[in-house]
Write a structure and sequence with these properties.
Blueprint (H helix, E strand, L loop, with lengths): L2 H5 L1 H19 L8 H20 L9 H28 L1 H6 L5 H28 L11 H25 L2 H13 L9 H7 L1 H8 L2 H13 L7 H4 L8 H20 L3 H4 L1
Helix pairs in contact: 2-6, 3-4, 4-6, 4-7, 4-8, 4-11, 6-7, 7-11, 7-13, 9-10
Length: 270
């Protein structure tokens, strides 16, 4: 995966066409079409809001809790979609791999880029919802895309690594789906991290070393309120502030290297 190859005009055109095709095929045949890009996370948000905010009365002490919950839901949906589509991308494009020769990484990047486009649409919805709910627009909102880039790179690294394994062992995608269901409750999407901190400060510190939790909390901090607990304002040890980013760097590096090593077998195994 050399830089010149990534930046070549031929690869950019191919990537663009694959992204367009992925985006069209994903909603082809559905009555609501592209609206599902917004409806899916919004429906999840509605269910979570009714159950946890209205029935269980969770988040009453958090400023703009509906926005807080929506931001977490949209970010989680992005990570979930990005990894699930990325892991299955090579298998789904096996016919294309056998017909023409091109860099295999483009297939995974196109699948995850489609998920990124869906997220950007939903981020616009979150911003509108935040303004309606009384959140004051701020220049700090401009930092959010850079934070999301970290989550995208994490998703891409996971997709490279598990996607390469999934070509030979198709159970990987199913195992990942089950793992994601468990991981959902280990990330502060529906509950405030303050609940964990009150019960066990050590557990809260461990939670905040998770790159997914770190990104969600950082986005909430810059988008909604600076009262949000984050990795860098809760953990006293400054070196620990870099752990989530270091984890992302390791995953994207090792994932990319393993993907490149296995890519020569994809055409015959996919």
């Amino acid at each position: 995966m050399k830089i010149p190859n990534i930046c070549s005009r031929k690869n950019r055109i191919l990537l663009k066409e694959l992204v367009k095709t992925d985006f069209k095929l994903r909603y082809q045949g559905s009555v609501l079409g592209y609206m599902w890009a917004v409806l899916r996370p919004m429906m999840l948000f509605a269910i979570l809001y009714v159950v946890f905010a209205k029935i269980l009365k969770m988040g009453s002490d958090i400023p703009h809790y509906p926005v807080y919950l929506l931001a977490g839901t949209v970010l989680w949906s992005f990570f979930s979609e990005c990894t699930s589509q990325g892991i299955q991308a090579i298998v789904a494009r096996g016919d294309l791999l056998r017909k023409i020769s091109f860099p295999k990484w483009i297939i995974v990047v196109s699948a995850t880029t489609t998920a990124l486009i869906n997220f950007l649409i939903n981020l616009g919805v979150v911003i509108i919802f935040a303004i309606i709910n009384g959140v004051t627009p701020s220049l700090s909102w401009l930092i959010v895309p850079f934070i999301v880039l970290e989550l995208y790179l994490l998703s891409l690294g996971i997709s490279f690594f598990l996607g390469a394994i999934n070509v030979k062992y198709r159970d990987i995608s199913s195992i990942w789906e089950v793992f994601m269901q468990a991981l959902f409750y280990a990330v502060p999407v529906i509950y405030p991290i303050t609940m964990v901190a009150d019960a066990s400060p050590l557990a809260a510190k461990i939670f905040l070393l998770n790159p997914i939790a770190q990104v969600i909390q950082d986005v909430r901090y810059f988008l909604i309120t600076n009262q949000t607990i984050t990795t860098w304002n809760y953990l006293p040890e400054q070196l620990l502030h870099f752990v989530p980013v270091l984890i992302v760097i390791i995953i994207i590096t090792l994932g990319g290297l393993y993907f490149r090593k296995r890519s020569k077998y994809f055409a015959e195994e996919a």
